[in-house]
């Protein structure tokens, strides 16, 4: 199986190493010092305290990679519209595209029965570049649960979890999803194929839409937010609004909001990705995690005063810090 990882940073590099280990023909798309280090020394991965080197191909131009059986996009959501057209050389007629990123995906309403069928989400695909260039029929959804980082160019460090839940927007257990899942499992990853991938997207997003912006605004870790009465109430209020939106769209939550918050508390003194991006001066994932939820609230007629207030504050923080791409 020919697989391209587009955006081979922490998560993409980890997936690429695992799929190479499984015997797949893997190409990484990267740039800058990270690309140069992989080209010169191979992809280095620290896992369970041991370092291994994987001689994977790494290029910057998708045309050098050619058509693939599957393209796994591990960029942050706000980066994808600008590169959607660049993905086309990676496609043949049967190429699948895996969206391994946080937040509400641009294809969310594809073939979703009901009044919102095939709606676009402007917060994540404002001009429809992804819908038209990638096309939703190629998509396999993916919810990422693992944590990795990049201590230096060319080096990936696996920190926790190895689960990537896959799912077709249609809910079918397709041959292409099963084949990819089997390759991922062979490489040492957990890759269940679920019939209701949108529910898994919401369960992860449920916490991210609250904890990420609150952490960026306050500098607090997950455990700090959960133990601070004011911030816990703020997070809970945002999550209750999000749950109302999701339930209007037919989503069933398997746990209640307080158990979800307790789960975040159990993660401990962890800085959210949005806080890490702010501290590093990188663009924050505001739109896919928060703005998109506000948009769906407006779409479904659910009032979101707590989401609206926090979103406005974190957007202003992003603009003044240069960390909000607009």
Explain this structure to me?
The chain is α/β, with parallel strands linked by helices and about 325 residues long. The protein has 2 domains: about 1-195, Rossmann fold; about 200-320, N-(1-d-carboxylethyl)-l-norvaline Dehydrogenase, domain 2 (Orthogonal Bundle), CATH 1.10.1040. Helix content is about 45%, strand content about 15%. It has a 7-stranded mixed β-sheet with strand order 5-2-1-6-7-8-11. Strand 1, helix 1 and strand 2 (about 25-30) form a beta-alpha-beta unit.
Topology of helices and strands:
Blueprint lengths: L1 E5 L3 H12 L3 E5 L2 H10 L1 E5 L2 E5 L2 E3 L2 H4 L4 E4 L22 E5 L28 H5 L5 E6 L2 E6 L2 E6 L3 E4 L7 H12 L10 H22 L3 H6 L1 H20 L8 H11 L5 H8 L5 H15 L4 H17 L5
Parallel strand pairs: 1-2, 1-6, 2-5, 3-10, 6-7, 7-8
Antiparallel strand pairs: 3-4, 8-11, 9-10
Helix pairs in contact: 6-8, 6-10, 6-11, 6-12, 8-11, 11-12
List keywords for this structure.
326 residues, alpha/beta, Rossmann fold, N-(1-d-carboxylethyl)-l-norvaline Dehydrogenase, domain 2, 2 domains, 7-stranded mixed sheet, 4-stranded mixed sheet, 12 helices, 11 strands, 17% strand, globular
Write a concise synopsis of the structure shown.
The chain has 326 residues and is α/β, with parallel strands linked by helices. Helix 6 packs across helix 10, helix 8 packs across helix 11 and helix 11 runs antiparallel to helix 12.
